[in-house]
Specification:
The chain has about 550 residues and is mainly alpha-helical. It is about 75% helix and about 0% strand. Helix 16 packs across helix 17 and helix 18 crosses helix 19.
Length: about 550
């Protein structure tokens, strides 16, 4: 869930001056910034940690390097071609990126402003409800719409339904970043607007929106990454995109050169989105002077504005979660005769893969986060950052790159699948650990090292107990994201080794509604757990 990682990183608002003074201590006191503070006997330990970071970064960056090498080797880059359907797949992908981004920006920004700065009945509950779309995978929502449409005599197919599904599945990313910006930025300016008699919409257009544009833009970039990664919904609704084209050229047509050409095109689009996101995040940094724990001032909506705001905030989560529940109610009578043993096997496979992915990802992210704190090397820090960019690589592109690497080495498909999960979801876990470590005063590390403890002792006795919450949260988010992941699992799984996500997609493609119901509800339940894990973050924003 490239989206979940966005909340971990936040909008990078700078801390108050008191916190800035504390975090400036490492260059004098913390062993992470001063090699002199380390005893000679600890230097080999730090070297060992550096080697671990280099190995992790090499494994994380190897897929992109391997894909580029394959493109440049052999017949050369001139042999790469998009094929007959390539231009259509590129244009559909770009069209979805632009239109989904625009609609998600409007929907996410509107709900973010209303729930952060306006007061109306049910506001708190509706603010939490904006997280519910994260629980519904886009391929499940697409399958739901197709089946419900057929029951009422409608054929749901093509670009427009795909656009609606992707907007409902991704607008929460814009909401999370915009509501954070509206909650912490421009309080003094908005209070001035209130004192001058400017209403909520005038304050929104004149003050709040210009200040929040960088955060909104970063959220739009994240929605674009999700669109490029999408596989199940676009195939079910019959829209050729780069993700589906890569899989078709690679597995069905046996044309790796064409698949690599499409993969490189997808990487170019994603690279532009990543660059835009990073630039906008840097521009969103600002300093906020707070007068203390004063009661939050919000505009109280009256009359038609109140119920229109309720309707606007209620409709997206109601559609994204309500439609699958309505579909389940209509399809419940079709459950008879389904093989419970096969369902149990699918659940165990999904659980096992997700558990392995969660454990490996947390271990790897812990190594990178600790190294970022303890090793005063700019190169290591840049490599650590680059290793966390796997969330931006589409699943089909990552799968193709891993197959190009694993094929000559005869690596087992399950090993490649675990590698892909760790690479893709590393940022989900690492972002939370980085944020938690930044909150631990450097003087704690200094006190431990002055007593003769190396980084291993500090990690075991100090950091791990303090990081118990972020470690559990990161494990949960990676676990749920792995269960929902379709492109990577569908492309790399061994023969006759399906998971819940793959089986839901296959059943939906075959119009076997009854068979898909229970796996879909299991995935939906796990997605609700992940959405619930983000509620404390919204509550902290509410208290600012």
């Amino acid at each position: 869930m490239p989206s979940l990682n966005a909340l971990w990183r936040g909008a990078h608002h700078s801390p108050p001056r008191a916190v800035t003074l504390v975090t400036s201590l490492p260059r004098r006191l913390c062993p992470a910034a001063s090699g002199k503070a380390l005893a000679r006997g600890q230097l080999p330990q730090r070297s060992l940690l550096s080697v671990g970071v280099l190995l992790v970064c090499a494994a994380a960056l190897a897929p992109v390097v391997g894909l580029t090498w394959f493109a440049l080797s052999g017949a050369g880059i001139e042999s790469l071609g998009l094929g007959e359907e390539g231009p259509l797949q590129v244009s559909n992908t770009l069209g979805l990126v632009v239109l989904v981004g625009a609609l998600a920006a409007g929907l996410g920004t509107g709900t973010g402003w209303l729930t952060a700065r306006c007061e109306f009945p049910g506001r708190r509950l509706l603010r939490v409800a904006q997280l519910l779309p994260l629980a519904t995978p886009s391929y499940l929502l697409a399958a739901t719409l197709i089946d419900l449409g057929s029951r009422f005599g409608y054929r749901i197919y093509g670009f427009s339904p795909t656009l609606a599904v992707m907007v409902l599945s991704t607008y929460s990313y814009v909401f999370l970043l915009s509501t954070e910006s509206f909650s912490v930025s421009g309080k003094r300016q908005l209070e001035a607007c209130r004192s001058l008699g400017v209403g909520p919409w005038g304050s929104f257009w004149r003050v709040a929106l210009p200040m929040a544009l960088p955060s909104i833009g970063a959220g739009v970039a994240l929605t674009g990454m999700e669109v490029v990664n999408e596989l199940g919904a676009v195939q079910l609704l019959g829209v050729p995109t780069l993700s589906s084209g890569i899989l078709m050229r690679w597995q069905q047509e046996g044309d790796p050169q064409a698949a690599v050409a499409l993969a490189l095109m997808a990487l170019v689009i994603v690279g532009l989105l990543v660059g835009a996101e990073r630039t906008l995040r840097r521009r969103s940094r600002c300093w906020t002077i707070s007068a203390g724990r004063e009661p939050e001032q919000r505009w109280t909506l009256q009359g038609h504005q109140r119920w229109l705001s309720q309707l606007f905030c209620l409709t997206p989560p109601l559609l994204s979660l309500g439609l699958p529940l309505v579909w389940a109610a209509f399809s419940w009578d079709q459950l008879q005769g389904e093989d419970s043993a096969e369902l149990l096997e699918l659940g165990l496979r999904s659980f096992g893969l997700a558990l392995v992915a969660a454990v490996l990802t947390v271990i790897v992210s812990l190594v990178l986060s600790i190294a970022k704190r303890w090793i005063p090397n700019a190169g290591i820090r840049r490599l650590s950052f680059a290793a966390g960019l796997g969330y931006a690589i589409p699943g089909t592109v990552l799968a193709l790159a891993l197959m190009l690497i694993g094929g000559p080495l005869a690596l087992a498909p399950l090993l490649l699948l675990a590698w892909g999960y760790v690479d893709r979801f590393l940022a989900v876990s690492k972002g939370g650990l980085d944020a938690a470590l930044e909150r631990i005063p450097p003087s704690v590390d200094e006190a431990a090292t002055s007593l003769g403890q190396g980084w291993g002792g500090v990690l075991q006795r100090i950091h791990l107990p303090l990081l118990r919450g972020p470690l559990l949260m990161g494990s949960l988010l990676v676990f749920v994201d792995t269960v929902k992941e379709l492109p990577l699992t569908f492309a790399l799984r061994p023969f006759d080794f399906d998971t819940l996500a793959v089986r839901v997609y296959q059943y939906a493609s075959d119009e076997r509604v009854g068979a898909a119901l229970i796996p879909a509800l299991l995935i939906l339940s796990l997605g609700l757990i992940a959405a619930a894990a983000l509620i404390p973050s919204l509550e902290r924003l509410e208290q600012r």
